[in-house]
Specification:
The protein is α+β, with helices and mostly antiparallel strands. The protein folds into two domains: 2-83, D-Amino Acid Oxidase, subunit A, domain 2 (D-Amino Acid Oxidase, Chain A, domain 2); 90-151, no CATH class. Helices cover 18% and strands 26% of the residues. It is built from two helices and seven strands. The strands form two sheets. Strands 2-3-4-1-5 form a five-stranded antiparallel beta sheet, with helices on one face. A two-stranded antiparallel ribbon has the order 6-7.
């Protein structure tokens, strides 16, 4: 997993009545009456400095492409999310700890992918389905083999 910076714009758009998330070049998620979250930016390190305005400018441009309605910016939130360099999520069992599974690395696609992929992983763990090859964590087994000493699980003491 690699850190990835993202920003989300909080806006008020009087007259916009979206009951569900929209996803067309940006996502727009309802966040109360007339309020929405618009996202998200996607930056690999090095991250832009706080307050540069680049993220807000990018998101307001995307929002303008989705609706002609006037809006008011209420705030901007910035965070770091787990991502994978190939921009595909990770699903499946740990190679050395079969009781440990992973469902992550969604990057900016968590809003749209996480519910479906979590259900897919649950089905897989229950013996009712297969993982999508492009999301299967096994694609990294040859890069980080479990039989290498540096990749073996270590015992930890809680006391």
């Amino acid at each position: 997993l690699t850190p990835n910076q993202g920003e989300v714009l909080n806006v008020e758009v009087p007259g916009l009545t979206a009951a569900q998330a929209l996803n067309r070049g940006a996502y727009v998620v309802p966040d109360g009456p007339g309020r929405f979250r618009v996202g998200a930016t996607y930056r690999w390190p090095p991250f832009e400095p706080a307050g540069s305005g680049e993220g807000e400018a990018e998101l307001t441009l995307r929002l303008a492409g989705l609706t002609p309605l006037p809006y008011r910016v209420l705030g901007l939130r910035r965070g770091t999310r787990p991502a994978v360099r190939d921009r595909r999520p990770l699903l499946g069992r740990h190679p050395a700890l079969p009781w440990l599974s992973v469902c992550g690395g969604f990057g900016s696609k968590g809003v749209s992918l996480a519910p479906r992929l979590a259900a897919l992983l649950a089905d897989y763990l229950g013996g009712q389905g297969e993982l999508w090859p492009e999301a299967d964590v096994a694609r990294y087994y040859k890069v980080y083999p479990a039989d290498q000493p540096e990749n073996k699980p270590r015992a930890h003491s809680l006391g």
